Amino acid sequence: MITLDDYSDIVGKNYIENLKYLAKKLKNKKVIMLNSTKEGGGVAEILHRLVPLLNELGINCKWEIINGDDKFFNITKKMHNALQGQNFNFSDEEYNYYLKINNENSKNLDLNADFIVVHDPQPLPIISNYNNSKKNKWIWRCHIDLSKPNLNLWKFLKCHLTPYDASIFSLAKFSRTLPHPQFLVAPSIDPLSDKNRDLSAKEVETIIKKLGVNKNKPLILQISRFDRFKNPIGVVKAYKLVKNELDCQLILAGGGATDDPEGMKVFKEVKREAGHDKDIKLLILPQNSNLEINALQRTADVIIQNSSKEGFGLVVTEGMWKEKPVIGGAAGGITIQIFNDYNGFLIHSNEGAAYRIRYLLNRPRKSRDMGRHAKEFVRNNFLITRHVRDYLAIFLALENQGKNIINLF
Amino acid sequence: MNNKSIFKFYDYNLIISPTGQKASNLKEFLNILEESEDNVIYYHLFQSPIKHHLRYPVYPNDFANWAADSLGDFALAEKLANFDPYDFHEVGSVKNEIANIVEGHLWDLPTVPWARPGFEFYFCSSISLIFNSRISASNLNQFKEGILKVSANSIYYHFFEARRRNKNKMSDDFTLWLKENSYEEKVIKKIQDIDFYFYSISEIRHRLLKILSYYEENNLENQDLV
């Protein structure tokens, strides 16, 4: 089992000691994390690490989930998309059903804790079923892009958000005007998970052989769902521009296309664009292909994330952690991860992508330097240990509400 | 050895707190800026080095970087970069000065510069958490070791933030301690001569260590302070 001290080699002993020191100030505090699933998705992935680490630090942290039927999750899925800007209308019946399921869940959930962190919109209105004493601090943790939410839905949800004591967003641009304090917590990756841990050369070789990667040609890689916002067709176009100048191969790898009709459509379009080029591989990876993604990222010469719209872009973080400079579309959270010519390049067109790919393939030394910077940048900003520290700091800030400077010595 | 001569390194944790306000163009930016609390100005102007602690950014504060990257207004970026907020004792005066620069610049422009959607300026404030890093020093060697070991945020707290806390641009915690313990004027001056406004925290750490090592090799051999 991975423990907090296992992270010492990565972030330094001092960092871990500081976490323990901060946690001591919150000793015996009770925290509840509440979301709607323990399996699948980025939120569950983060909580699977975060909750044990908080407990190891002496915080009494429990993870609860709300239950619902297909009807409920279809409504919340629609809400998720509407909050990210898609145009949907919600009927009163849908709103009422959403509230009813939350109400039913509240009968079975004891949410009495010092800090109750409610993740995303699914359980958001559950707060109204509890006696919100001043002792209990309710925090809404929003993981989604709220930069342009559907107005009617937002008005409805905002009423339920008002009684909360604080909200947490991933990026400043996702924050809204709210009657309580808001905090920023960027997502993070776990450097000891299968997707990110160090792999031996032998492990990498076995995996990439299985995936049919040609070891003799520079590899350009994009890992993403086959989604228009990730612009995979643009990646193929950029690759073709590069291929005119130097021999290379392209892998586009992603999951989820088979059960997503839109994804399947995009996949077919990408396939058509790729034509009969044997140096282009389109891989549909099954869920939990973490080691495969890890090995591909470690093998790639250039990693690209050609998104035109992006929440945070943890796949960029993962690539950077493998000491690769990442070429990323100047969108969403990618812009706070990549600094031009330092740890990667931000691009605005397929031509820009092609130009930067050629630049990096022609300058392996520069590419290695940028890769080193990329890894250090992630070490300092986007690892799970920073995520733990952010939660501790926010809990302490809420215990000292109203102060801009909190002295803990 | 008395207590006075022990240097305690403090660690510093920044919690970023967005206000929910955003500016899509320079006029909106000015309006929101004028209404902003001191803490917002402090975050965007003074605490910028924490975000860029590995590498010095093109411009030294969030306002100047936004003017260049999102408005494409490089003249304004240069004016905002050349402005040194540490020249003022009060954040309120810093705000007025920045507002004057922006207002004067807008006055001379034929049109108001806009940012592309997604590249608006998002106003934030911050909460600072200060705690004992449990690293301390009572001689030069330990002092150097401390500077090497502590987090970048700790260096920020003692070398950047201290100047505002001490209300004196020349008074960082490190040189104060060296002075208090009668280290040579020469080394203190060398450290004071670092124009901290032009270095990342990581570069500052490197320079401090270089100065202290040179001093140690040439003057003192891990001498305890009395």
User: Largest sheet of chain B, described in full?
Assistant: 2 strands, antiparallel
SSE order of chain B in H/E notation? EHHHHHHEHHHHH
Identify the CATH class of the largest domain in chain A. Answer: Alpha Beta
Helicity level of chain B, as a percent range? 40-55%
Q: Low-confidence parts of chain B, pLDDT < 50 over ≥5 residues?
A: none
What does this structure look like?
The complex is a heterodimer of chains A (409) and B (226). Chain A is an alpha/beta fold. The mean pLDDT of chain A is 93. In chain A, helix 2 (13-24) packs parallel to helix 14 (384-399), helix 4 (70-83) packs across helix 5 (92-108) and helix 8 (232-243) packs parallel to helix 9 (261-274). Chain A contains 14 helices and 13 strands. Chain A folds into two domains: 4-188 and 383-399, Glycogen Phosphorylase B (Rossmann fold, 3-Layer(aba) Sandwich); 201-381, 3-Layer(aba) Sandwich (Rossmann fold), CATH 3.40.50. The longest helix of chain B has 18 residues, at 91-108. The chains are: A alpha/beta (409), B alpha+beta (226). The interface between A and B is large, with 39 and 35 residues.
Short description:
The complex is a heterodimer of chains A (409) and B (226). Chain A has helices at 8-11, 13-24, 42-56, 70-83, 92-108, 151-161, 201-211, 232-243, 261-274, 290-299, 314-321, 350-362, 364-381, 384-399; strands spanning 30-35, 60-65, 115-119, 137-141, 166-169, 182-184, 219-223, 249-254, 280-284, 302-305, 326-329, 344-347, 405-407.
